[in-house]
Fold:
Amino acid sequence: PAAEKSDAREEGTVLVWPWRIGIGLAQGFGFYLLFHARALVQWPGSVPFLFDAIALPLLFMPWLVMAGLGRIALPPLAAFAVIAAAILAALGWYHRWRIFGVAHGQPGLSMLLLSGLALAIAFAFLDAREGNKGWRISYPALFAAAWSLAARLLMLLLVMGIGLLLVHSPLMPRLTLERGDIFAMPFLGLCGALAFQLTAWPRFTAALTRALIATATVLLPLAVAGAVLMLSTTLAEGPPALLFLLALMGGLVIALGLWV
Structure:
């Protein structure tokens, strides 16, 4: 019964494809308007703090909603999206304050990676809780939700990478993306919608998840062995820097935790 319920929930995500397409197009046009306004020195693009406060939620929130459609009930998904959007907007504002005076448009890659990681963890918990009574989440449900999300994010990266290659190819004459492109940006938004729609099919997602788990099962022991070898080499050469040692040990602990 639990498996049938999960399959029914997975199949329900396939039926919301018009919403995914609409959200993807809205995300693309939103980025076009934002970057085009900045190129023309018009509001809100002309205000660096506001630009970053809009761009960060605009990047992550459509993906989060498209991933949750059909899998998570609308009220908790909407509440989670609103709270996350407010936090991301505040982070974007804070990021601009931290680099104020630097040329406008700094990507803040560390902030993007950490924000994406935090959202992925929170989303996995929310997805695993769906259908359970109370706030208690079983480990099998969390394991399945986390690896399923990892597989969908892998597909998102793949499809978005192909989309970026097409955008930067001679097949699509365009303005630079930094100035806003009315064709390329909605196209990239559609690529994101396509990625989440592809992984809405239960059999495809299950096969991709199994392949990802199998790959990680092989690679994680190698990563642990490599970390141990690097640590041994570093200690043999002399006392390592504290930050490097902590980072290496942290990575080793995470790898061992995933392996076990």
